[in-house]
Amino acid sequence: MRDTAGLWFVLVSALFILVPLYFIWRVYKKQLAAWAEFASRHALHAQKLRIEGSYEGYQLTLETQRRGGGKQSYTVTVLRLSVGDSLPPDFSLEREGLGDKILKVLGSKDAELGDPEFDKRFSLANLSEETAAILRRSAVQQLLYEMVDQYRAFHIRDGWIHAERGGIPSTADALEDLTGPALMLAHTLEESSRRLKNQTRS
């Protein structure tokens, strides 16, 4: 009788371990298939949960990373998209944080665009007149505001858009949704930069 009870205990314990592992494995396989499909759509290279290559003319890297530690750790999907020659490599734009606001109160100010709504949202560094002209375009500002709404973290630095969302997309369409706002911003920055250069020449 004891042997039978012991056997049932082992079987039930194994089920409690194997069933969750099975579902985790199925989710992972679905994610791998989705990332491979997205990469195939855009002629990109996929290696498990990492994608890289030229995405509509812009260098792209898409991968997962861990944030936090211990029981508080979580996974995010990180997108890096080149802006090409649209912005100088030394220029940076970040969401303004509490530390930036405190420094402003204390009299230490970063570069500003002169647009109160924009300046209260973003912290800028190495802002040239040409870059300021690009950032003043309404289409660019609208997309930058959308980036803040769409991603849990976002900045432009060293010629790259960096954006991340929590979790791991499990469909190719979800990956399209993740990369779409950043791609639109890159396109709009390029178009705005080209128009500005044409105006300067004429």
Task: Explain briefly what this protein structure is.
With 202 residues, the chain is α+β, with helices and mostly antiparallel strands. The chain contains 6 helices and 8 strands, in the order H-E-E-E-E-E-H-H-E-H-H-E-E-H. The chain has an 8-stranded antiparallel beta sheet, covered by helices on one side.
Protein architecture, described:
The protein is α+β, with helices and mostly antiparallel strands and 202 residues long. It has one domain (2-201). It contains six helices and eight strands, in the order αβββββααβααββα. The chain has helices spanning 2-41, 98-105, 116-119, 129-135, 138-150, 172-201, and strands at 45-46, 50-55, 58-67, 74-82, 92-95, 122-125, 153-157, 160-166. An eight-stranded antiparallel sheet has the order 1-2-3-4-8-7-5-6, covered by helices on one side. The model is unreliable at 98-103 (pLDDT under 50).
